[in-house]
Amino acid sequence: DAKTTQPTSMDCAEGRAANLPCNHSTISGNEYVYWYRQIHSQGPQYIIHGLKNNETNEMASLIITEDRKSSTLILPHATLRDTAVYYCIVRGRGGSNYKLTFGKGTLLTVNP
Amino acid sequence: DTEVTQTPKHLVMGMTNKKSLKCEQHMGHRAMYWYKQKAKKPPELMFVYSYEKLSINESVPSRFSPECPNSSLLNLHLHALQPEDSALYLCASSQTGGGQGGVETQYFGPGTRLLVL
Q: Which of A66, B11, B25, B106 is most buried, taking the most CB atoms under 10 A from its CB?
């Protein structure tokens, strides 16, 4: 699976959009971009995933660049409860696709 | 419903004790996973069960013994653990385990925080 690079930490004001970047320059054509988050001492929570097209669900939007080398997770109106570590994970078909390989993630702190 | 439940939430055990962690899901998923997360580290895969059979063991010491009694339940039996085994133990499930070549979303439980004294 391709490696990902995320900022160690980010801050966001409550009510504003939080934009979390992820670089995955070695991603291959059949690899998906997954986002999970982990609120302190809880289990990871699935947020969203995508292959090529931008995706949106009730939690967030995922914007994938045309060359697929980077993506951005957008939380449109961040709340204090969105404070968590956000993991960007690239996963492909076959091979070790059975497991999630978590990196260090981005600690997002939403401030009042 | 994407709920995975785990019991107990917290567990303290001595190095000579035997204990078990339990995980349950009712999403009809046929793959279940155990991950281990040490403090300030990301989760790491331990075991994968697919269709009630152990399909992946990530070189986990034998003092950890997984069991899958049926498609909804996953246990992790603990025996003669060491203090360095203290961690958050996470259970997850997905539809089939990716054996068909697909990429599946895994859903996690809240975890069991284990302290070995």
A: B106
Alpha carbon of residue B88 to chain centroid: 10
Asked if A46's CB is within 8 angstroms of B105's CB, the reply is yes
pLDDT single digits (tens) B61-98: 999 999 999 999 999 999 999 999 999 999 999 987 66
CB contact under 8 A, B106 and A32: no
- Closest C-alpha to B55, from B66, B44, B63: B66
- Residue A101 and residue A2 in contact, taking contact as beta carbons nearer than 8 Å: no
Nearest to A85 by CA among A108, A102, A103, A54: A108
**Chain-centre distance for alpha carbon B113:** 12
Q: Residues of chain A whose C-beta is under 8 A from some C-beta in B? A: 32, 34, 41-46, 49, 87, 91-94, 97-100, 102-105
For all residues of chain B together, what is the average pLDDT? 93
* Direct distance between the N- and C-terminal alpha carbons of chain A, in angstroms, rounded to an integer: 37
- The distance from CA A21 to its chain's CA centroid, rounded to whole angstroms, is 8
Q: Mean pLDDT in runs of 10 for chain A (112 residues)?
A: 89 97 92 94 95 94 96 97 96 74 94 96
Shortest Cα distance, chain B CAs vs residue A104, angstroms: 6
> Which residue in the set A41, A44, A93 is minimally distant from B102, CB to CB?
A93
Dist. CA B44–CA B35, nearest whole Å: 5
